[in-house]
Hints:
- 4% of the residues lie in helices and 50% in strands.
- The strands form two sheets. Strands 2, 4, 5, 6, 9, 10 and 11 form a seven-stranded mixed β-sheet that branches.
- The longest helix has 5 residues, at 101-105.
- It is mainly beta.
Amino acid sequence: QVQLVESGGGSVQSGGSLRLSCVFSGITYWQHCMGWFRQAPGKEREGVVSIYSDDSTHYADSVKGRFTISRDNAMNTLYLQMSSLKPEDTAMYYCAADLLDQRCFGNQYNYKGQGTQVTVSS
């Protein structure tokens, strides 16, 4: 059974930083791709970043240079370090996984957590 549990969200001022964590189970990093996506009220789901079994990554243009994804396989934890946060980064952030790389790349994950809220004030 796949489980993903996010934490680390909160409220910060513009320019601040947050680190999101996602503890996962039922997922093997060499079989699953993983990633983060976000969704703001009234807006469509937006892929933030994905990471693949070969450790390659794909970032959305909107977060390149500001966000960094990492994975601790021994601790079964996925991280998202977010810096230089902007008000437009405000959203619910979800940790997600899938067996198929194309579904991760297309932001169509089969598994996701409950989300953690990030609010950035100007």
